[in-house]
Structure formats: structure tokens, C-alpha cells
Design brief:
elongated, mainly alpha, 56% helix, 175 residues
């Protein structure tokens, strides 16, 4: 997926070039497929839509409070609004706002759980300072992140830190 290249976080530059015209055939991506790709990229690599839902809920709550204050002033002085209209709209806006804010909070929790479950690294070690590459490497060949080295796990695999199933002591039967 195209978004993974920018997700890694390395320095990137743009290259300007002129592409020749297509020699034969038509592009396989239709407008619908391009829109689907754009939405997939927006939803997969951004939490902005979830934040937008939360902000929309907050806006709805503020609007309902402003409308409630207007309804109170109108009921006391002007009497311009139809009877029952203001209370119905205020309750609908307020409850919709509460639902949107709640949905946004739950969605943000789910997004963070989803990002954690993916298991992507939070950072990439560019340079190892003060520790030889051999000591910093895991048994699978990957470089151990700094936070694991700081806990004293340098040079050991995480799997080797745990005892194997057969190495655990078996309980003795009472006679």
C-alpha cells in the first residue's frame, strides 16, 4: 500500500519527471477505484476521521447549549418560536452530540488498540551508539530497540528469557 512508504518515517524527496503517454490500452483504475483507494488511505493511516467525529459532537453540544439559551431568552421576552419546537430540537441536538462524543472516544480507544495489535515499531533505530552491533542484535537478525536494551535484555532473545514448557517443574503427586 502506498501509505506504508511514508509511514516508515525515512526522509523523502519528490522527483519531478514527465511520463510518456500510455502505449496501449486503458488505465484499469476507474474513478470509483481511485476514490476507494483514497478513502482507504485516509482511514488506514490517519485518525483524523475519528477526531472529526469527536469535534462534530462537541460542536453539536455547544450549538444545543446556545440554542437552549436563545430559547430561554425567547420564552421570557419575545415569544417568536413555535411552542415545543425549541425543546425538541435542543434535546435532539444535545443527545446527538453526547452520542457523537462518546462514539469518538470509543473509536479513539479502538484505533489505539488496533495500532498496538499491528505490532509496527514505534521507531526505527538509525544508529547504535555505545553498544556493538553484535550485542544489540537479536537472534533473528533484527536490531533490538533501545528501550529493551535499557532493561538489560541486550543480546538475548525474548523467547529465550522464558522457560520452555518442558523445562517447567512438574508437580509431585502426594502419596
Amino acid at each position: 500500500m502506498r501509505g506504508l512508504r511514508s509511514f516508515v518515517g525515512f526522509k523523502q524527496i519528490g522527483l519531478v519527471y514527465e511520463r510518456d503517454a500510455r502505449h496501449a490500452g486503458q488505465p484499469k483504475y476507474t474513478f470509483r477505484a481511485l476514490v476507494r483507494l483514497a478513502l482507504d488511505g485516509l482511514v488506514s493511516f490517519s485518525g483524523y476521521p475519528l477526531t472529526l467525529v469527536t469535534y462534530l459532537g462537541i460542536f453539536s453540544l455547544v450549538l444545543s447549549l446556545a440554542l437552549a439559551s436563545w430559547a430561554v431568552v425567547d420564552a421570557c421576552f419575545n415569544h417568536l418560536a413555535p411552542r415545543g419546537w425549541a425543546s425538541t430540537i435542543i434535546v435532539m441536538l444535545f443527545m446527538g452530540g453526547v452520542q457523537l462524543v462518546s462514539l469518538g472516544i470509543i473509536a479513539e480507544y479502538l484505533r489505539r488498540i488496533f495500532l498496538e495489535v499491528k505490532g509496527r515499531p514505534t521507531y526505527i533505530v538509525r544508529k547504535v551508539i555505545g553498544l556493538s552491533r553484535k550485542k544489540a542484535a537479536r537472534t533473528d537478525g533484527s536490531v533490538m530497540p533501545v528501550n529493551e536494551r535499557a532493561r538489560g535484555k541486550a543480546g538475548r532473545s525474548l523467547e529465550r528469557d522464558r522457560p520452555a514448557v518442558n523445562d517447567r517443574p512438574t508437580p509431585q503427586k502426594a502419596r
